Amino acid sequence: MKCVNHLLLAGMVAVAANAQANDLDKVIDSSSAINQSALQSQSKINSIADDMQSRLQKFRTLNKEIDGLVVYNSQLDKQIKNQLEEMAAINASMDQVSVIERQITPLMMRMITGLEQFVALDVPFLKNERADRIAKLQAMMDRADVSSSEKFRRVLEAYQVEVEYGRTIEAYSTLLSVDGQEREVDMLRIGRLELLYVTKDGSKAGSWNKESKSFTALPDTNISQINKGIRIARKQLAPDMLTLPIQAAE
User: What start and end residues bound the annotated signal peptide (predicted)?
Assistant: First the structure.
């Protein structure tokens, strides 16, 4: 009887051990499944975190670009405003230019007429050259292919040439009526102060008389000084003192 009891007890212990082993296996399997699920969840979390970090970096980059565009657009607004102001100023200037251009043409015509009158009343040197210059200015005013600015420049240039005559010395050859006979002479212009001549053969000399508006003869004693002045004007002699008859300034 005791032997049977021992067998029963051993069987029960074995059954209990098997049951515990089965339960432990289940616990281990369950733990492994939980660990696997946790690993998968952590992987998903890491992936989401990486994606969020990437999105955050893109967001920051976009914000910087937006800030830059705001500054750029603000600068463009200022430039556009300035350009509109400049356009308005240019339009106003164009209107003024049209008015000025209408006024400048009559002014140039008066300047040319004044220059023509001045040359006619001036000492008669280089008459053909100066008359030709004025004739070209008058012809130019009728030309449509020359701008108003270019016309004005040439008129001023002609005035500048006339101004230069008053402070230079010049010698040139021309034909002149001497004692009723046309002869070739050398002319000496000293600014606008004096205009003298000497014949090519050196036999006669004279000067322009502003009162009589004609040339008057000079004593032969002046011929050598006039010839000296002519050579100085032609840069054949160094500048030197001249003894010449000079009319008193009015």
Answer: 1-21
